[in-house]
Every structure is written in structure tokens, then in C-alpha cells.
Amino acid sequence: MSLGGMAIAADFALLIVAATILSYVARLLNQPTIVAYVLTGVVVGPIGLELVAEGDELIEIVAELGLGFLLFLLGIEMRFDDIREIARPVGAIAFGQAILQAVASTGVALLLGFTLFQSLMIALATTFGATPIIVKVLGDKGDLKELYGKVDVGILIFQDIYLVMALAILAVGSVDEINEVALSIGRVFVLMGLVGVAAYLASKYFLPTLLRASAANKSTLFTVGIAWAFLFIFAAETLDLSIEIGAFLAGLALAQLPYSTELKERMRPATNFFIAVFFASIALQMEVDQLLAYWQEAIIACVLLLGINFVIVFGLFYSQRFDVETSFLGTISMLQVSEFSLVLGALAVDQDLIDADILGFLSLMALITMPISTYYVLYNRQLYRYVRPYLERFEREETIEAQPVEYANHAVIVGHSRLTGELADVVRETVDEIVVVEDRAEYVEELTDSADGFIFGNARHGDIRQDANLAGAKVVVSVAERTDVNR
């Protein structure tokens, strides 16, 4: 290996080691790992110790793939069945939030002295919720099946659609004439629609057979998932679309299938690796004077927008006839400046739409609000007990009632064998419903067609246990051939 190649490999290794250490510290402090990834770039890059420089070819390639895999994970989280029953109020909240928060962010940015165009870009970047963080924290708390958790996930699904549209618009880049801008944006949306139709048809007629054939071997399932993501990344690149749009649509196609949760768990370590390099690379692009160019404005903006956005989102929840508790719990999960502000900011810098100083401003806002928001989401019910006396005056009689979790007063049977039917007959007398958790592909069709609930996946995985509401099950029986799933 040449000296240049050794230097590149050393920089990359140093970045990964630093990200690993800081991620471990973040986990001990109950902080999002995304914060640790950004801080990795701050510590080892030009802002900090100057151990790794911007422009490392290997880091740039992996970082670009990291953005693609971030959008792939975003797509695979979007199961439309999760919000079907509350789609109308959720859509109204999401639309109102996007408009009102954009107006508020633009106003605050103008007040702080930014130009109109800069303010509009800041508003675009700060409108989205932190999907990976919110889903992770609510999942760890077991609140994704609560009414406010379902509403938050629904809002995030709508916001993710807005995000993809924003990415498509930014992909056009700098065009001088208005008609050229319109034609370029129209072309992007047409091509995106064609890729989306291809993804939908594949999820209906091709993917179920492919995944059923590959699910018996978990290594093969992982390989198929990676290959599917790269297939759409390649298609998007060939059509001159951004790779993140292709990756998002690939994940979206997988999300509607019963294999999605298991596949997501299998792919998470690899995708997290790419995502870590992407967020670290954002900080590698900045000098210390760029990060701190607007540090006072960033602090003021955080304080103002936290308050303004709380009023906006709480009011939207309340206007859709959710009760006060649901409105409060759902609101405080949605207030942080998300990691997608960095994504859009970095893309805007690459397109020469904004200066790196604005990216530094967005980065500081994210680094301030994400750690704080993690704690107030973790302790949201304690906060509600504190403010309840002040909010009870707004309570009303007719509200959208909290729906029960997907499985309640139920039995969970882990594994499927000749005993499963007999066990189901025995426990059916004491529970309202039964859900079977099985990760062998040969039983997917049989269990999907049965009257009982079915979740494909390994019962050791946290997401599988949450989907089955294992902690709330009245009866849990394991007939799995592999005893490790019982741990």
C-alpha cells in the first residue's frame, strides 16, 4: 500500500475509533448517538485536534453512502398501517406544523439579522423532527403504541415525505432562470414518481417471493436488504437523482412487508457504521470560526423556537380534539432541531446555496436541542405531572380517546411447531387474542393467513418484542427450537 493509501486508512480508522468511544459515552449519558457522531468530527477535525482533515476520499465516499442509508432506514420505519386509524388528524397536524413552524423560523431568523434567503433555508432545515431519535427514545420507553406515540410517528411520516421533496428540490442546484428551475424540479419529481411506482410494484409482486426465499438464512436476508438498497441507489444515480431519494424509496418498499422489522434489525449495525461517518464528515467540513460564527444567534434561536414551536404543536394537537395529556406528551417529543437540518444544510453548502457559517449555525442548534430533548422525552410524564394543574383548565369532555396498544390482554407464543395449535386452543380461553413470533420463512404464508396475529422475526430483538407487546402479555409461551430466544 502506498504512503497516501496508508494515510487515508489511518484517518478513517482514527475516525471510527473516536466515534466508537464517543458513542459509548453518549449511551452512558442517555444521549443520541447522532450527537456523538457530530462531536467525533468536531474533536478529530479542524475544529478540534486536527487529526483528520476534510477531503479524505475514503471518508467522503462512505459519508455519501451514509446519507443514503440514513434515508433507507427512514423509509423502512414508515409502515402506513401504524397510522391508518388516525391519518386524518395526524395529516392536519403535520401540514399545519410544517407551515407555521416555517413561518416562525423565518421570522426568528430575520429578527436575528439573516437575509431573507438565508432565513428561508434555515426555516426549511429546521422544520423536520428527529425521526431516528424520537422513534428510538419512545421505543425504549415502550410508548410507540400509546396514542401520542402513534400520532408522533404519523407526523414524522408526513415530515419524511416533505424531507424527500426538499431533497429533490435541493438536488436541482443553482439554476439562473425561473423556467429552468421549474423544469428541473418537475423532471426530478417525475423521475422520483417513476422510481416510486417501481418500488411499489416490486413490494407487491416481487419482494415477498424474494424475501420469503431468503429469510431462512439470516445472512442471505441481510445481503438481500443491502443489495436492494444499492439497486435503488444505482437507479437513482443513473437517472441523475440524488442517491438518498433512491435509498428512501427502497426502504419504503420494504417497510410494508412482514419481514421489515427483522430486516431492519439485521441491517442496523452496517447502516449505523455508514451513518456515523456521514455525521462526522459534516463537522470535518467546518472550521472553528464557521461553527461559532453565529453562536449567540443559535442560543437565542433555540430558546425562542422551543417556546414558539411548543405553542404551535400543542395548539395543533388540541385543535384536533386530542386530550390535554396526549397533546402535551406528543408536543414535547417534536421540538428539537433534528439531524436532518444538518443533512439539508450540508447539501445546500455543496450546492453553493448557503455559506458554511449557516451550516455551523444549524449544527449548533442541533447540538444544543437534541441532548436536551432526549431528557425531556425520557421524563415526559414527570413533566406532565408538574404542569398538569396549569393545563387542566383546557380539558374538555369530547376528545379522541386513547386507543389500546396493538396487542392487549393477549398471549405471545414464540416459535411455531405442531404444539402451537394445541397451545393456542388452551390459552385462547383466558386471553382476547394470540400473537405468534416466528423467524422461519417456511411458516410465513401459513401464519399470515391464520386468524391469530403474526410477527416475523427473532424474539430476542427489541423491536420484535415491542411489536408483540411482550411486556404487557398475559401469557408468554416459547416453543422455539433455539433456546437462545428465551433469554
Automatic annotation (TrEMBL):
Pfam families: Na_H_Exchanger (PF00999), TrkA_N (PF02254). It is a multi-pass membrane protein. Keywords: Membrane, Transmembrane, Transmembrane helix, Transport. Residues 412-486 form the RCK N-terminal domain. The keyword Cell division does not apply. Residues 17-372 form the Cation/H+ exchanger transmembrane domain. It comes from the Archaea. One of its GO terms (biological process) is potassium ion transport. InterPro entries: Cation/H_exchanger_TM, Na+/solute_symporter_sf, NAD(P)-bd_dom_sf, RCK_N. GO terms for molecular function: antiporter activity. The chain crosses the membrane at residues 6-26, 33-52, 58-78, 90-114, 120-139, 151-175, 181-203, 215-235, 241-257, 269-286, 298-319, 326-346, 358-378. It is found in: Membrane. GO terms for cellular component: membrane. Gene3D superfamilies: 1.20.1530.20, NAD(P)-binding Rossmann-like Domain. PANTHER family: SODIUM/HYDROGEN EXCHANGER FAMILY/TRKA DOMAIN PROTEIN, SODIUM_GLUTAMATE SYMPORTER. Belongs to the monovalent cation:proton antiporter 2 (CPA2) transporter (TC 2.A.37) family. This is Cation:proton antiporter.
